Amino acid sequence: MKAYLKAQAEKMGVPMTDAQADAFCAYHDRLTAANREMNLTRVGEDAQEAVDRNYLDSLTILPFLDGVSTLIDVGTGAGFPGVPVAIMRPDIHVTLMDALGKRVAFLKEVVAALGLNADCVHARCEDAAKKPEFRDTYDVACARAVAETNVLSEWLLPFVKPGGRMLALKGPMAAEEAARAQTALAQLNGRLARVCPVSVPGRDWDHRVIEILKTGATPDRFPRRAGIAEKRPLK
Q: By the 8 A CB rule, do 196 and 211 touch?
């Protein structure tokens, strides 16, 4: 796995040290073991599949992180993309947030074992975003495969400091989602910057990253209480 991971990352323009590759291998071992007991990832134990689908796919946001010092990964699940970012960018303090306690417990073990510059928070994003220690705090808020962009924007933008950015890792319908989110963004003080194709070597996936700029403070009424954004998306 280590040789394949390093070679594939190199093709992406992401040079990886032996220590970083070892960290990914240790993460993979812990993840596959924990996944037998709880549902952390749908990707099986095949190392090359995990490298492509989980680790390298997470690293497609690295080109968007120049000048970033703080990042929150909302709905992180098994730690994607936050843990791979923390391995490759130890200068960025990463917050891994999830609503499921057993996932957060797993991530705390990973962070401690790998010595990552990260912390783990067990909370619903709607509740955490109302707290001053999280609101308007981060350079970047990101999420991978969590919700449609209009819903995700209500969840993520309150965490971002004005002038910061939201990054959503998406599939082939990203441009359509971004278009549907325009009205929501106007209410949240966000503005679509770009929808960029990203790729993993040897895979023909049509993946995109939606980048949204936060132009001002998010109004206090957002995010609405838990469950409302999904039931009544901003239109």
A: yes
Give Dmax (Cα) for the chain: 49
Q: Are strands 70-74 and 138-144 parallel, antiparallel or unpaired?
A: parallel
Peptide bond preceding 158 in cis form (omega within 30 of 0):
no
Q: What is the DSSP string of the chain?
A: -HHHHHHHHHHTT----HHHHHHHHHHHHHHHHHHTTS-S-SS-S-HHHHIIIIIIHHGGGGGG-TT--EEEEET-TTTTTHHHHHHH-TTSEEEEEES-HHHHHHHHHHHHHHT-SEEEEES-HHHHTTSTTTTT-EEEEEEESSS-HHHHHHHHGGGEEEEEEEEEEE-TTHHHHHHHTHHHHHHHTEEEEEEEEE--TT----EEEEEEEE-SPPPTT-SPSTTHHHHS---
pTM of the model: 0.97
Distance CA 135, CA 47 (A): 37
Instruction: Write out pLDDT tens, residues 129-181.
Output: 999 999 999 999 999 978 999 999 999 999 999 999 999 999 999 999 999 99
CB atoms within 10 A of CB 74: 28
